[in-house]
Each structure stands twice: as structure tokens, then as C-alpha cells.
Design a protein that fits this description.
Length: 196
């Protein structure tokens, strides 16, 4: 992931963390047992927006449990962070930190896409959901997905969509996501020149 540089990386959040306090987990389309929320995720855990310092907290190593990340240097990471921050109200990269060891152990992203349709509505896209393998079975996947799903609702998205591996459809179905009849295909073209 590139050699870490000298100096301190900023803790400035990618988006205003106060929005997370407004999320109403009683509206979550799933049950948590024990009850958790973005502001009370459980002992030793914190749900918060991504910050630059997360580069050194294993954020990219975590993402590599989802797909290929490549050798992303600190400089490249910071540049991408800046680019996201320069698009206000668009990128809501949200992480779970294990505060006992300072590592980022879960993440998911809400991307808010601006539309002309539906009266210039906004649409949410659920992206890059991942929970560290060693933390599975603790409702953290549900928690991080519900956090950004409720965030999409809070930000007035008219819908939230995702694409995932076929085997994960039953899991997402338990969280209120549905295969809409006659409208549940996801198609793609992969481009040869794309970086790994
Ligand atoms: C999954 C992810 C998507 C991610 C992609 C990476 C969710 C809900 N979906 O489809 O966000 O970008 O995997 O796979 O997390 P790729 O490397 O094959 O594009």
C-alpha cells in the first residue's frame, strides 16, 4: 500500500459527522440484537466518516478484503480524499473503527447521485461494503449498511441501490433490499485498460 510518510495525517472528517446523530435506527428495516446504532455501535467501536489519517489505520487493507485495491500510495490516497471532499454532498465514506486498537474494521459508502428525473431528485448508491473477516458475526455488516442506508433516506434520496455477488442477495434481502419484479438486472462492461 505504499510506504507511510513522516508527519501527522488529518482527522478532519470527509463529511459532517453530526448527520450520523440524526439517523433514526427505529426505522431500520432489520432488527439488531442487541440494539445498536451509528452513535452507539457497541463497546470499543466507533462509526464515523472517513478521514485522511485512516490511511494508516488499515483502511485500504480492509478494502482489499472486498476486491483488488492495488498499490495505492499515501499521496494517491490523499489526492483521492481531496477530490471526494471537493464534491460536497456526494461521497459519504463511512467507517467502523475498533477504538481498542485504532484500526478501521468496517466500511461502506453512500454515493449521492444528482438527477434531473423525479423533480431533480437524488439517488443513493451503496458501495464498497466490507467488514474485516475477524470481526464477522457481530452485526457489523448490518450496522454499517444500515447506517449509510438511513443516511440516504435522511438526505432525501428517492431510492438506494446496490450491486453484489449473487450469493449475497439473501443477506441484503434481510436488510430491506429487494429484487424488484422485472427490474432487477445489473449489467456491466469491464474495460481492458482499467488499473487493477
Ligand atoms: C461489489 C460492491 C461494490 C464494489 C464492487 C467491487 C457492495 C454493495 N457492492 O459489487 O461496491 O465496488 O463489489 O468489485 O459493496 P469489482 O472489483 O469487481 O468492481
Amino acid at each position: 500500500m505504499g510506504a507511510p510518510k513522516e508527519g501527522i495525517l488529518s482527522e478532519e472528517p470527509l463529511y459532517d459527522p453530526k448527520i450520523l446523530e440524526r439517523l433514526d435506527f427505529s426505522k431500520a428495516r432489520t432488527k439488531f440484537s442487541p440494539a445498536v446504532s451509528a452513535v452507539q455501535p457497541g463497546e470499543g467501536l466507533r462509526v464515523r466518516p472517513l478521514c485522511r489519517a485512516d490511511y494508516r489505520r488499515g483502511f485500504l487493507q480492509l478494502l482489499s478484503q472486498l476486491t483488488s485495491v492495488g498499490d495505492v500510495s499515501e499521496e494517491q490516497f490523499l489526492k483521492r480524499f481531496d477530490a471526494m471532499q471537493a464534491c460536497p454532498n456526494t461521497y459519504y465514506v463511512t467507517v467502523i473503527e475498533d477504538t481498542t486498537n485504532g484500526q478501521v474494521i468496517g466500511s461502506s459508502t453512500l454515493v449521492v447521485e444528482q438527477k434531473f428525473i423525479h423533480g431533480c431528485a437524488v439517488r443513493g448508491r451503496l458501495e464498497d461494503v466490507v467488514v474485516n473477516n475477524t470481526y464477522r458475526g457481530k452485526q457489523l455488516g448490518k450496522l454499517i449498511i444500515m447506517t449509510v442506508t438511513l443516511l440516504a433516506e435522511e438526505l432525501n434520496c428517492y431510492k438506494m441501490t446496490l450491486d453484489c455477488k449473487d450469493k449475497l442477495v439473501p443477506f441484503y434481502s434481510t436488510l430491506g433490499y429487494t429484487l424488484e419484479k422485472g427490474n432487477s438486472n445489473y449489467m456491466m462492461i469491464r474495460f481492458d485498460k482499467a488499473p487493477s
